[in-house]
Amino acid sequence: MEVTFKDVSLSYDGTREILHHLNFTIPEGTLVSILGPSGCGKSTTLMLISGLLAPTKGQIFFGDQDVTKQDALARKVGMVFQNYALYPHLTVLENIMFPLKMAKVKKEERREKALKLAKLVHVDDQLDKKPGALSGGQQQRVAIARALAKEPSLLLLDEPLSNLDARLRIEMRQEIRRIQQETGVTTIFVTHDQDEALHISDHIMVLNLGDIQQFSSAETLYDNPSNLFVAKFIGEPVINTLPITAFGHDLDGAVPAAILAKTQTVGIRPEALQDHPIDTGTLAQITTQVKAFEKYGREKNALVDYNGNELLSTEIQGRLENHQDLTLYLQKSGFYLFDEAGQRIFGGEQDVE
Amino acid sequence: MLNEKPTLKSTGKALLYLLPMLVITIIFNIYPILKSFIMSFYTKYDFFKDIVQQWGWSNFTYIFHDPDFLLAVKNTLIFVVGVVPLTVIISLVVALLLNKIKWLSGLFRTVYFLPFVTSTVAIAQVWHWIYNSDYGLLNYFLGLFGVSPIAWLESPKYAMLALIIMSIWKSLGFNIVLFLVGLNNINERYYQAAEIDGANAWHQFTNVTVPLLSPITFLVSVNGVIGSFKVFDQIFALFNGTPGPSKSALTIVYYLYQKFYTEWKYGIAAASGVVLFFMILLVTLIQMWYSKKHVHY
Ligand SMILES: Nc1ncnc2c1ncn2[C@@H]1O[C@H](COP(=O)(O)OP(=O)(O)OP(=O)(O)O)[C@@H](O)[C@H]1O
Ligand SMILES: [Mg+2]
Questions:
Q1: Which of A176, A183, A193 shows the shortest CA–CA distance to A151?
Q2: Which residues of chain B lie closer than 8 angstroms to A77, CB-CB?
Q3: What pLDDT score does B62 carry?
Q4: Which pLDDT does position B52 carry in this prediction?
């Protein structure tokens, strides 16, 4: 089911606004991640979609139906809560069967379906336990099975993998992706782990302080961050940022003067700093001093000082000594300029004026 | 440590902590219970010299052939059955309503708590007025619906009902407060999950509220059963020191009181106490057994 927010704002207490004028459309059948730091309003956005919370302002549509006034009972979405919210008095099997019981599915059918789902999320050896006797990860998986039980047309997952170990996490995220693609259920997946978001989703919505920063594919997010927040938030290792003043006249000629005049911050991805020139793509060169040089297997990293700013480069070919001078070549891809408001004004594909 | 096994030393230490309380309990609870058990077998006894001349079962044979005692047992059972379920249901309903209107619940909590902290005698005095057949409040209201005046406290037919109504009212406050605490302790997220899972208000009540409240319900009903089996002061106060018109509100403890204080038949009084003890024990055990299956901690 397609989900559309039109100018949705939310305030819990009527004074402090948590979400500000959200506008977005989640296309039917896609898997969309909502990514953002803690407290930015991810869970709140999910609650709004589920109908557990009503927006203070704005409208919510499922397809072309306005569901703003409908409660959770009427919206019929599936949801995995951040804190699982498994019924403590029911066994694992009963928990998974509960939505089916509410939908008046026959007893044998309920059981059969629940067993299948339990197997799918690997809790079929825990069926008679109460949630209190499960580990966090097991509870999470039971919650996923419960959400899937009623075959919703919209599935909301609030950090459903946060308590799993690395291996299980990757396995479960592939499983979620597989189930999603198999059933075509529109899925909204909240996470604060960018790696998870990049791997699982068709589109990623980056949220910060209740505002959508950017809503696009993972690739676009990395290659064309629309602002400084997204540039810093996406990418591992983190993008190098430094004030434009550090460059002196190093960028003269490489970037139009009009743009340079508006620039406040420069962002350079670590792979856009190379110790060897490339004919095409090199934008400018800077002279730095090596502070630290590390070699891990095939990978060589250098931490350098550039006019008092620390920069990280992951594209080193030569062997370096500490304190030696080093000329680095700035590559055009991975080099961005941001204005006072943090908006990108240079770099990436479509330059924003 | 959570999984520490008790050792001789740790048990001894715990006992030492408990000692002061233990001494008090033994003197004022355990000893009297044992003494009354023993006393129920005194068949000839000089109270003033504390000499037992004869032992036997005759106290028990006596009470089981005493129509008054059998009436007392019957009345007690009627009282328990009349008071406990209604108390549980009414206090749960009131607590649910109060829980919906948060700003009122503080005020009402105090209002409902008043009966609990007011003396039974004062309460009975008020109910005397309410039950008054000529100008009582209750008959006035019933009159509005065309019911002719009822002699609540004078008619053997209505005396037990009057007693039950007052007792329910008296115990509501405390139980409502208990239920309110219980309701407050149910995390909102279970209701959210249930709503997502398609449970309407009624299903949320039966599938979330009732099971998660069951420890409190259990506490309230066990407490209510025990308290109701021991009913005495309400009767004494409501019927001015009599067991109601033509013994219509004679209960086991009232019987015991009569035998002990007005007839000085200590053995018989003790025997009726022992019977009451086992009745309460039996019902409580049944409740415990039931709770194993239906109470979720
Ligand atoms: N019930 C509530 N009442 C008042 N404020 C709330 C409530 N729930 C959340 N908030 C506030 O709303 C903001 C967003 O909270 P939300 O739970 O949506 O964050 P989140 O992005 O899910 O964070 P996390 O990653 O830590 O789960 C926070 O500032 C939080 O304090
Ligand atoms: Mg959250």
A1: A183
A2: 196
A3: 87
A4: 77
The residue among B197, B203, B217, B292 with the most chain A CBs within 10 A of its CB, best to mutate, is B197
Q: Supply the ipTM of this predicted assembly.
A: 0.82
| CA–CA dist B181, A8 (Å, integer) | 36
Nearest alpha carbon, ligand 1 atom 28: A39
Q: A78-92, B120-134, B191-205, B219-233: which has the minimum mean pLDDT?
A: B120-134
User: Is domain B66-294 given the CATH code 1.10.3720.10 in the classification?
Assistant: yes
The pLDDT tens digits of the residues spanning A215-245 come to 999 889 999 999 999 999 998 889 999 998 8
Average confidence score pLDDT of chain B: 87
From ligand 1's centre to the CA of A168, what distance in Å? Answer: 27
- How far is the CA of A26 from the CAs of A42, A60, A169, B69, in angstroms? 15, 11, 25, 77
A89 to A129, A130, A155: CA distances (angstroms)? 10, 7, 25
User: Domain A238-346, what fold?
Assistant: OB fold (Dihydrolipoamide Acetyltransferase, E2P) (2.40.50)
pLDDT tens, position by position, B147-201:
888 888 888 888 899 899 999 988 888 898 899 889 988 999 999 999 999 999 9
Handedness of CA B128, B129, B135, B141 (dihedral sign): negative
Write out the two tokens for A275.
């110790």
Q: Dump the DSSP string for B36-51.
A: HHHHTTEEEEETTTTE
B196–A86: do the CB atoms touch at under 8 Å?
A: no
Return the CATH number of the domain spanning residue range A3-228: 3.40.50.300
**Chain B residues with CB-CB distance to A147 below 8 A:** 196
The DSSP secondary structure of A285-322, one letter per residue, reads EEEEEEEEEEEETTEEEEEEEETTEEEEESB--S---T
Going by pLDDT thresholds of 50, 70 and 90, the confidence category of residue B2 is low
C-alpha span between B248 and B158 (Å, rounded): 9
To probe the interface with B, which of A12, A94, A102, A113 has the most B CB atoms within 10 Å? A102
- Global pTM? 0.81
A314-320 mean pLDDT: 85
Distance from the B110 Cα atom to the nearest Cα atom in chain A, whole angstroms: 28
- Amino acid (1-letter code) at residue B121: V
Could you say which residues from 38 to 77 on chain A have a Cβ atom under 8 Å away from some Cβ of chain B? 50, 52, 71-73, 76-77
The residue in chain B having the minimum alpha-carbon distance to the alpha carbon of residue A155 is B196
List the domain boundaries for chain B: 8-58, 66-294
B42-84 pLDDT per residue, tens: 887 777 777 777 788 888 888 889 899 999 999 999 999 999 9
**Cβ <8 Å between A81 and B189:** yes
